[in-house]
């Protein structure tokens, strides 16, 4: 099962309106729910599903995509093309979101979906990026060192890489700007 199919199947198992499928809106003017600290969001009437999505999926995505994947990708792209389809620890955002919903009893998945989610979680925990091919799969070790700093003004403890933020075991490190 490919990632997009798995994510669709997992979304189908969510017992509330899943913001992953359709952005949760409220009010007469269909404006998005405000992004607030979790307790303030709940007090303001933001649905629990939206608060969980913002605090898990969105926050992790921002930290991993904008704080890690994009800086590394941009550094690698300066030397030429990079694979378009890559997976790895940056998938932790959607994996963690669906895992948390399941653990909280807010989503129910079939045995196949749970098995696949478990494999994706193991991959996100145990390796860096990976590129699947027809006959070979390239897997990169996780970095030896990752240094982050808080992103100012965020509600969910989001982080970004420091300039000297990544080093791999073979000594390679990207020159981040």
List keywords for this structure.
14% strand, 177 residues, alpha+beta, two-stranded antiparallel ribbon, 5 helices, two-stranded antiparallel sheet
Overview of the molecule:
42% of the residues lie in helices and 14% in strands. A hairpin with an 8-residue loop joins strand 5 and strand 6 (159-167). The model has no long low-confidence stretch (mean pLDDT 83). The protein has 177 residues and is of the alpha+beta class. Strands 1-2 form a two-stranded antiparallel ribbon. The protein has helices at residues 3-12, 38-43, 48-77, 92-103, 111-126; strands at residues 25-26, 31-32, 130-132, 137-139, 145-150, 159-167. Helix 3 (48-77) runs antiparallel to helix 4 and helix 4 (92-103) packs across helix 5.
Give the SSE string.
HEEHHHHEEEE
Give the termini distance in whole angstroms.
37 Å
Q: Biggest sheet: strands side by side, in what order?
A: 1-2
Principal-axes geometry comes out as globular
Task: Provide the helix percentage.
Answer: 40-55%
Structural class: alpha+beta
List strands and helices in order, with pairings:
Layout: H1 3-12, E1 25-26, E2 31-32, H2 38-43, H3 48-77, H4 92-103, H5 111-126, E3 130-132, E4 137-139, E5 145-150, E6 159-167
Antiparallel strand pairs: 1-2, 3-4, 5-6
Give a brief outline of the structure.
This protein has 177 residues and is an alpha+beta fold.
């Amino acid at each position: 099962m490919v990632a997009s199919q798995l994510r669709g199947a997992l979304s189908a198992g969510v017992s509330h309106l899943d913001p992953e499928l359709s952005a949760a809106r409220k009010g007469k003017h269909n404006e998005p729910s405000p992004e607030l600290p979790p307790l303030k969001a709940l007090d303001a009437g933001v649905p629990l599903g939206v608060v969980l999505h913002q605090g898990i999926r969105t926050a992790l995505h921002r930290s991993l995509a904008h704080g890690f994947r994009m800086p590394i990708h941009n550094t690698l792209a300066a030397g030429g093309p990079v694979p378009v389809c890559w997976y790895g620890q940056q998938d932790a955002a959607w994996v963690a979101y669906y895992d948390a919903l399941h653990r909280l009893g807010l989503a129910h998945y079939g045995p196949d979906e749970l098995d696949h989610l478990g494999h994706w979680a193991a991959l996100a925990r145990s390796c860096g990026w990976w590129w699947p091919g027809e006959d070979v799969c390239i897997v990169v070790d996780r970095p030896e060192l990752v240094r982050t700093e808080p992103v100012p003004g965020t509600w969910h403890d989001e982080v970004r890489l420091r300039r000297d933020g990544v080093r791999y075991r073979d000594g390679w490190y990207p020159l981040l700007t």
